[in-house]
Design a protein that fits this description.
The chain is an all-alpha fold. It has a single domain, classed as Nucleotidyltransferases  domain 2 (Four Helix Bundle (Hemerythrin (Met), subunit A), Up-down Bundle), CATH 1.20.120.330. It is built from 6 helices and 2 strands; from the N terminus they run αβααβααα. A two-stranded antiparallel ribbon has the order 1-2. The protein starts with a helix and ends with a helix. The mean pLDDT is 95.
Length: 140
């Protein structure tokens, strides 16, 4: 995984956009409702959906902080460097989900349902934490 020092050159500075961040929060909430309505037989789609939610929350965070990147690794590196409430284990989970999402999207890899059973609660907690970070940084 890349570090923030590696990524800082690949990130564009822009004007903070609270409205775009709010729109991304709404999209993440909509995706979450969709993901959580699926039965476990759709395990691979659930895992992929959870990552998409996390990606949108990380993108919202950069947007409200006045930054933009298309690199998923750099989104995670930013969270690792700038979100003190996110643990190293949670950063590792984010990167693991990123890699799994790539395997699903580009190689058709299926996810073992046990993976979802073991990690669903951790993923939900991480979604809540990232949402909270974004909401805290949004102007009122």
């Amino acid at each position: 995984m890349r570090t923030w020092d590696d990524c800082s050159r690949k990130v564009q500075r822009r004007r903070p956009d609270p409205e775009q961040a709010r729109a991304l929060l709404k999209m993440a909430a909509l995706r979450k409702r969709d993901v959580e309505s699926k039965g476990d037989e759709f395990c691979v789609l659930i895992v992929e959906g959870y990552y998409e939610i996390l990606k949108e929350l990380m993108t919202a965070l950069l947007t409200v902080d006045g930054l933009k990147t298309t690199s998923h690794e750099c989104l995670i590196a930013y969270v690792e460097r700038h979100c003190t409430g996110i643990t190293g284990a949670e950063v590792h989970l984010l990167d693991q989900l990123r890699r799994m999402r790539n395997d699903i999207s580009y190689r058709g890899v299926m996810v073992d349902p046990e993976y979802l059973e073991r990690n669903r609660d951790r993923i939900r907690v991480l979604i809540g934490k990232l949402r909270c970070v974004v909401e805290t940084r949004l102007p009122t």
